[in-house]
Amino acid sequence: LDICVAAFWTCDIVMSFLTGVHQQGIMEMRPHQIARAYTRTWFVFDLIITTADWIFFALQFGADAIMRIGKTTRAFRILRTLRLMRSIKMRRKLVQAVEAVRS
């Protein structure tokens, strides 16, 4: 959901550069004048808020990735432990087989 919100407001910034504005009772459609009006009014505010959204999303994604790495590391440790237990069990079986052959 966070990425959808950030993407929406990022698109809104782009669309604001393409949307005409009323200046002195006249609809202004020239791109240069639209950009000039937008950068003088809401652009800085929109940019700060949208940048904050993307930063929070990136930090959240980074934290999730770090958590996944931790879980992966834990899974590998569990697998190594199981393999060690299996080798101990195998050693015990081998000792029993050798004793059975000797007797």
- Total strand count, please? 2
Judging from the principal axes of the Cα atoms, what is the shape?
A: rod-shaped
Helix content: over 70%
Percent of sequence in beta strands: 5-15%
Structural class: mainly alpha
Q: Enumerate how many helices there are, as a single number.
A: 3
Q: For the CA atoms, what is the radius of gyration?
A: 32 Å
**Low-confidence runs:** none
Strand order of the largest sheet: 1-2
State the end-to-end CA separation.
Answer: 70 Å
Overall average residue pLDDT: 81
- Largest sheet report: 2 strands, antiparallel
Order of helices and strands: HEEHH
Textual characterization of the structure:
There is one protein chain. With 103 residues, this protein is mainly alpha-helical. It has three helices and two strands. The protein has a two-stranded antiparallel ribbon. Strand 1 (21-23) and strand 2 form a beta hairpin. Helix 1 (2-16) packs antiparallel against helix 3. The chain is rod-shaped. The termini are far apart. The model has no long low-confidence stretch (mean pLDDT 81).
